[in-house]
């Protein structure tokens, strides 16, 4: 598929998961089949004013390619300045505008899904970015702001394309729904059939079968995988296989899952900036993604160090 002038070999993308999809996460996903990913979501103001967290977010690796960047912000001048700052650090395949984040603190900054309530601002940002930089500009949308309104979101999508957007990533819920409720496949389908640029479906892609349901019910060109990849870096390859052949991959053994978890944690140790109290809180979260038994998860919450967590993980294998 092509997004703007960029050819991309897959239609299954890893989402820009803030606080989760760091370099360690992405490298594990790449090793098991993720063909395209995003950096974690980037705050435009933080980029402009040189916040140190962006150095952490923008860490990359030769194996972490191809990759896109998503900007969260408002105001044409600030978004253009942030994009230029971004390009001084990395060269992504394209830049995405976040018009989908439902968080209240983001809405207060007139960013994220707020832009759906003021779409003229969004169109100006798209137009300004396409004129200011040479990379394709894409947009992450939701199916509405307060209420479902298919005609309105279709009109927004069409005007995004007219303003220069090279692709649309559509989360199938409104801002008000956040991450609850059913996916609005009909709204995504309506967008897909009213624009000529690629449209990706997003929301509840927790398995290959859910990915196929998204594609079948909307006609979308691809899918974004977000929470479905937590503890399951195989999901990207498995979705591609299921979409292509209709066959389901074999279930991953506990032994392999444990080995990958330990490798993921080792990457966190290697690549993630150390916090004053270490990264154990972050590591506990990762371990909970892979380990599903309630008793094991309870014990994970009690560990105090990386070494102690590894001992617990080894004990899980010893008790199989």
TrEMBL record:
Keywords: Flavoprotein, FMN, NADP, Nucleotide-binding, Oxidoreductase, RNA-binding, tRNA processing, tRNA-binding. Its cofactor is FMN. Belongs to the dus family. Its EC number is 1.3.1.-. It comes from the Bacteria. The lineage of its organism: Bacteria, Bacillati, Saganbacteria. Pfam families: Dus. The active site is at residue 101. This is tRNA-dihydrouridine synthase. One of its GO terms (molecular function) is tRNA binding. SUPFAM superfamilies: FMN-linked oxidoreductases (SSF51395). Catalyzes the synthesis of 5,6-dihydrouridine (D), a modified base found in the D-loop of most tRNAs, via the reduction of the C5-C6 double bond in target uridines. CDD domains: DUS_like_FMN. Residues 14-313 form the DUS-like FMN-binding domain. It catalyses: a 5,6-dihydrouridine in tRNA + NAD(+) = a uridine in tRNA + NADH + H(+); a 5,6-dihydrouridine in tRNA + NADP(+) = a uridine in tRNA + NADPH + H(+). FMN binds at residues 70, 140, 171, 226-227.
């Amino acid at each position: 598929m092509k997004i703007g002038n960029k050819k991309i070999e897959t239609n299954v993308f890893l989402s820009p998961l803030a606080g989760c999809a760091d370099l360690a996460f992405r490298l594990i996903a790449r090793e098991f089949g993720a063909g395209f990913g995003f950096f974690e979501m980037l705050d435009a103001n933080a980029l402009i004013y040189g916040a140190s967290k962006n150095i952490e977010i923008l860490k990359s690796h030769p194996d972490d390619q191809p990759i896109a960047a998503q900007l969260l912000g408002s105001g044409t001048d600030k978004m253009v300045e942030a994009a230029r700052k971004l390009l001084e650090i990395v060269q992504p395949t394209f830049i995405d505008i976040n018009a989908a984040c439902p968080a209240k603190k983001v809405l207060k900054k007139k960013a994220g899904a707020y832009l759906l309530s003021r779409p003229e601002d969004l169109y100006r940002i798209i137009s300004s970015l396409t004129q200011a930089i040479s990379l394709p500009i894409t947009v992450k949308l939701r199916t509405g702001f307060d209420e479902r309104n298919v005609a309105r979101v279709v009109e927004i999508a069409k005007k995004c394309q007219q303003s220069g957007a090279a692709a649309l990533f559509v989360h199938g819920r409104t801002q008000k729904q956040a991450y609850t409720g059913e996916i609005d496949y009909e709204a995504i389908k309506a967008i897909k059939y009213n624009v000529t640029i690629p449209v990706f479906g997003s929301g509840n892609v927790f398995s290959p079968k859910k990915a196929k349901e998204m594609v079948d019910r909307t006609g979308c060109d691809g899918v974004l995988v977000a929470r479905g990849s937590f503890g399951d870096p195989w999901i990207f390859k498995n979705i591609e296989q299921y979409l292509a052949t209709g066959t389901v991959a074999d279930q991953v053994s506990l032994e392999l899952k444990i080995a990958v978890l330990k490798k993921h944690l080792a990457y966190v140790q290697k690549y993630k900036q150390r916090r004053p109290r270490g990264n154990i809180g972050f590591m506990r979260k990762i371990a909970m993604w892979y380990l599903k038994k309630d008793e094991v998860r309870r014990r994970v919450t009690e560990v105090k160090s990386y070494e102690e967590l590894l001992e617990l993980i080894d004990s899980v294998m010893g008790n199989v």
